[in-house]
Amino acid sequence: MVRSVVGFGFPLMVDANCRWRTDEAIRAARALQPFDLIWLEEPTVPDDVEGYARIAIEGGLPLAAGENLHTVSEFDRMIREGGIAFPEPDVANLGGVTPWMQVAKIAHACHLPATSHGVHDLHVHLLAAVPNASYLEVHGFGLERFLVEPLRFENGDAIAPSRAGHGVELRDELLAGYRRG
Ligand SMILES: [Mg+2]
């Protein structure tokens, strides 16, 4: 349905949010093959490495995963044994910038791209700093209204700001009503 609206050639991904058992995920991946997806994301529970390996091989679609992994060693195993094609480290779930960069480096060593999950105002800097960047996931939660300078895009590319540090400055006047105490 979505493919028929956006046409072939437009990058399209499907996120199952850990929904399926291995056999269901393999069936779903096979059914999705005609729609030319960039990736199928989290087809099954986050830590089932053997399941991911089976889904990757038997389902025949590139898999993305990692937003629910919390250590570099979990990523290392998922990349090397789980057969994922798009590691998705989340700087907020993984423990910060250093482990995020370590995961991106492992991906690079395995000839894989790095992508991201959430927190796009931070990930735009990290992806800009690695040689194997692919897509920046951008959430549509409407939180940009709380930022002095929300993320900018030019022709579909996110622009990493040149402000100091992560450059995220909150609009305090809008946050006053949400503070406790
Ligand atoms: Mg996801």
Short description:
The chain is an alpha/beta fold and 181 residues long. It is built from eight helices and six strands; from the N terminus they run αβαβαβαβαααββα.
Plain-language structure description:
The model has no long low-confidence stretch (mean pLDDT 95). The protein has helices at 2-6, 22-32, 49-59, 72-81, 91-94, 97-109, 120-128, 172-175; strands at 13-15, 39-41, 63-65, 86-87, 152-154, 157-159. With 181 residues, it is of the alpha/beta class. 37% of the residues lie in helices and 9% in strands. The protein is globular. Magnesium ion binds at residues 15, 17, 41-42, 67, 117.
Describe this protein with a few key phrases.
181 residues; alpha/beta; TIM Barrel; four-stranded parallel sheet; two-stranded antiparallel ribbon; 8 helices; 6 strands; 37% helix; 9% strand; globular; binds magnesium ion
Q: What does the largest sheet look like?
A: 4 strands, parallel
Count of helical regions: 8
Average pLDDT confidence is 95
CATH topology group: TIM Barrel
Low-confidence segments, ≥5 residues, pLDDT <50?
none
The CATH architecture name reads Alpha-Beta Barrel
Strand content: 5-15%
Largest beta sheet: what is the strand line-up?
1-2-3-4
Bound molecule types: magnesium ion
Number of DSSP strand runs: 6
The domain tally reads: 1
